[in-house]
Structures are given as C-alpha cells and as structure tokens.
Design a protein that fits this description.
Length: about 110
C-alpha cells in the first residue's frame, strides 16, 4: 500500500504521520487489497479537515471528515473509511459468490 500524506496550511509532523499510518493499518487489516491511499490534512480558520482517497481494485473511495481537532478529524475519517471499505468488500464478495453460483449451476446443467 502506497501512502501519500499532504498538508494544506499545516505542517505534517512525524507524530501526525505516525498517527495516520497507525490508523490506516486498521483498514488494511479488514481489507488487504488497498492499492494506494492519499490523505490531505487541511486547516481552514477554525476547522480541521481530513480527506482520504483510497484506490482499491475497480474503485476509488473518497471520504471527508472535519472537526475542531486534527486528531479527532483523523479518527472520524478512519471510521468513515472503514465503513466504506467494508461495504465495498461485502458487495464484492456477494458479487463473486453470485458469479460462482451461476457458473456452478451452468456446469450442472450440461
């Protein structure tokens, strides 16, 4: 998994980088087919915003979270991202299972 971490109007400290990397490991534990992740951390006036664009096979998943604290925004982002990735994984498994059932039924009728 490639990680691209960018900061707009905020310096990415080693602690922030480590925090994001640690939190993203939760995503890769649930779904190991993540190709790359782009995370943008932004500060706009009093709003701390975190955006992530995750590239998985066949789809890009985009999530935004904001709050008063950058670490809280990152936590919220990871929670949203985790739900989206699990949803994608479940749909992908359902689709694969339906294809195998159709293929299996087709072979039985021959």
């Amino acid at each position: 998994m490639n990680l691209n971490l960018t900061g707009n109007h905020v310096d990415i400290t080693p602690a922030m980088r480590e925090y994001v990397t640690t939190k993203l490991s939760k995503i890769t534990r649930h779904f190991d087919h993540v190709i790359d992740v782009s995370v943008i951390l932004t500060v706009e006036k009093h709003k701390q915003k975190a955006e992530a664009n995750v590239h998985v096979k066949g789809k890009d998943i985009f999530v935004v979270a904001d709050g008063d604290n950058m670490y809280a925004s990152i936590d919220s982002l990871i929670d949203k991202l985790d739900r989206q990735v699990l949803k994608y994984k479940e749909k992908n498994l359902e689709r694969r299972n339906q294809d195998s059932i159709k293929h299996h039924d087709f072979n039985q009728t021959e």
